[in-house]
């Protein structure tokens, strides 16, 4: 650790700057200029006159916002197309069943218990990945089964669970329109993502 910031005031000030930097890093734009950020912060704190006119600031903010929106739309279109191509190829496999909604599933273990209904609450283990294999959520990794109402999850899960006798384990290939669609899910699941789950139905509660 550096001893550059040795006083309580310096350390707290540095912490404020780090927090602001983390916020910027979480929502960056291409070409962001940190010295200019520092100058704006210093001028605002000291009450100095802005070095950039309000008109130019508004123009700059509008343009950056447009660029970010354009980039998001580009990524969404790419994700949607990539997902559609993956599902089209996956559907050719003999072990994959495709439902009328577009949900795809593969039976890994066939259970013999009761099937849940739309009104049921279930206990499951699951492992969720993107189509590139990257894990975004896993009750298996946490070592803790998840409990939830059948009608309280994404549409692809709601449909699949009602096809599963207790003890069944399916591999689900969920199109974006049966997952989180154009909104995505927070920072973990981008918009228009096709998702893959291994889901084991442990019990109906």
From TrEMBL:
<dbReference type="GO" id="GO:0003755">
    <property type="term" value="F:peptidyl-prolyl cis-trans isomerase activity"/>
</dbReference>
<dbReference type="GO" id="GO:0006457">
    <property type="term" value="P:protein folding"/>
</dbReference>
<feature type="domain" description="PPIase FKBP-type">
    <location>
        <begin position="119"/>
        <end position="205"/>
    </location>
</feature>
<comment type="similarity">
    <text>Belongs to the FKBP-type PPIase family.</text>
</comment>
<dbReference type="InterPro" id="IPR036944">
    <property type="entry name" value="PPIase_FKBP_N_sf"/>
</dbReference>
<protein>
    <recommendedName>
        <fullName>Peptidyl-prolyl cis-trans isomerase</fullName>
        <ecNumber>5.2.1.8</ecNumber>
    </recommendedName>
</protein>
<dbReference type="InterPro" id="IPR000774">
    <property type="entry name" value="PPIase_FKBP_N"/>
</dbReference>
<dbReference type="Pfam" id="PF00254">
    <property type="entry name" value="FKBP_C"/>
</dbReference>
<keyword id="KW-0413">Isomerase</keyword>
<dbReference type="InterPro" id="IPR046357">
    <property type="entry name" value="PPIase_dom_sf"/>
</dbReference>
<dbReference type="Pfam" id="PF01346">
    <property type="entry name" value="FKBP_N"/>
</dbReference>
<dbReference type="InterPro" id="IPR001179">
    <property type="entry name" value="PPIase_FKBP_dom"/>
</dbReference>
<keyword id="KW-0697">Rotamase</keyword>
């Amino acid at each position: 650790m550096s001893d550059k910031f040795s006083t309580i005031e310096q350390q707290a000030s540095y912490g404020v700057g780090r927090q602001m930097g983390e916020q910027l890093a979480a929502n960056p734009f291409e070409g962001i200029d940190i010295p200019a950020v520092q100058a704006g912060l210093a001028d605002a704190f000291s009450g100095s006159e802005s070095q950039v006119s309000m008109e130019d600031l508004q123009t700059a903010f509008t343009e950056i916002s447009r660029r970010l929106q354009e980039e998001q739309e580009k990524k969404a279109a790419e994700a949607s197309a990539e997902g559609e191509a993956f599902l089209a190829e996956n559907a050719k496999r003999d072990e994959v069943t495709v439902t009328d909604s577009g949900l795809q599933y593969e039976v890994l273990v066939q259970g013999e218990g009761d099937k849940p209904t739309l009104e049921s609450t279930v206990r499951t283990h699951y492992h969720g990945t993107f189509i590139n294999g990257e894990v975004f959520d896993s009750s298996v990794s946490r070592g803790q089964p998840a409990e939830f109402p059948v009608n309280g999850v994404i549409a692809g899960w709601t449909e699949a669970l009602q096809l599963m006798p207790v003890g069944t384990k399916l591999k689900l290939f969920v199109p974006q329109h049966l997952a989180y669609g154009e909104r995505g899910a927070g920072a973990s699941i981008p918009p228009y993502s096709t998702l893959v789950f291994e889901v084991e139905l442990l019990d109906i509660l």
